[in-house]
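help with this:

***
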Amino acid sequence: MSLKIIGAGFGRTATASLKIALETVLGGPCYHMSEVLGKPGQVDLWLEAAAGRPDWDAIFDGYAATVDFPASNYWRELAEAYPDAKVLLSLRDPERWFTSTQETIFSPTLQKFQAGTKWGRMIKATIDDHLGGKMNDRDSLIAAFNAHNDAVRAAFGDDRLLVFEAKDGWDPLCRFLGVEVPEDPFPHVNSKEEFDAVFGMLESPMGAKVMNGEGMEMPGSMHDEIF
């Protein structure tokens, strides 16, 4: 299976909801940061990618789409590697996006867990360094967010790119993909409260293994287990 959709939107732009939505309409799994958490070996693969030695086919083996960090920072490389894949740029109000990141993915709580770990090195190399490194500075982070979105918009025409917000629902996404609109409501998951499950997992004995890139000893989709 080759990627059909490359998600270029940053984390906390409804990427968890998009993962579920894309799996629903594409009939195949969608890659997400939760897969990096859950699958052994993924952290090492991303460290290799950050060092300029990506093995995209190994990372995305069996996936029909990808959304969220860290893949969204490699949209140029992925668009070249998968020339038939369409690009999906998920957006959110920049101020609300920043506030959300500070409570979740860029929070001091998560930074504490990541410090001195292989996971932390991967996050720095694939996310922090791409966004300027000032992960708690409002002006710097919003500027990086806007610059990223502008670059993606400028790179593709409407035939390959969909700019999307979760509030848009199924219609524009399904038109873009050429599929029927599902009967179920568009998914809405991964609130701040739901993200607290990640903190709980990291505080458990499993947390140290996850931060070392060893994944989770859980069956099924890692995303389903976490969220």
